[in-house]
Amino acid sequence: MVDQAERLRQISRQNNVEEDRKISPRSRCRVVAVSSGKGGVGKTNLVVNLALTLASWNYRVIVIDADLGMANVDVLVNAFPRHTLEDVLAGNMDIKDIMMEGPHNIKIIPGGSGMFNMANLDRDKRGRLVDRLQVLESEGDVLFIDTAAGLSRNVISFVAAADEAIIVTTPEPTALTDAYGMIKVINEKEIKNRVHLVVNFAQDISQGEEVFHRLNKVVDKYLSNLEVNFLGPINRDSMVTRAVQNCEPLVLSYPQSPASLSIQRIAQRFIYSEEGEERQEEAKKGVGGFLQKLQKFLK
Known about the structure:
The chain is α/β, with parallel strands linked by helices. The chain is built from 15 helices and eight strands. The chain is globular.
């Protein structure tokens, strides 16, 4: 149960975010890759519910499902894509033709294998895809790229090309080890000097913070050129399973559940996260900068 005082604090914080959104709209779309070292950590569930939370605060949000093997963004919002980026590559459709509209007007781009085939495209097809994707700059304030799990070339390319990266892990030792492995690769390849971290399936806030501090201690010791920004934990919650089984987004079906409130706090920290002048310059590149960098990394 959420007591009345906590509910009032949630309303106050939400109102602040919405008011700031009206005052300071972004001039460029914020491109964010969401990934994980291993599967089964709730990455896509976070993407969908984080997107919906931001959309409820008047942000225009786009989600590209770039997880070819386990694409399921559409499943979590009970949508059924008829077309994907493959149709755009074939020259039969534009991005707006394949774009699906979800709750709170979020936009979903079914990636299919289009995003993964960029490295194998000839110059004309690659140029066509980049040209078509440019339209997303004017369509959204935040673009989430839901990548596959693991350290494949495509995943690392998406993380490298995006303005920001969110790494999702859980308290399980294997998940933590794989999350550190991904952060280590990001550091070694000098892809980013900062990543966001979310700890899913935490028993409570204390366990989530403990997991972060444990991981961050190792990062500070061995990866001195990289900073981990903790967005927060997501509480373990039986309502998550129920929402997934019903193909309903958690934050809409059970907005006062522990996990939903956790995601609201993460959304607030994400919006207000300050990364200094360098991040601000990176953010100005938007979708166009993302696509240019993605081409470079996939060559």
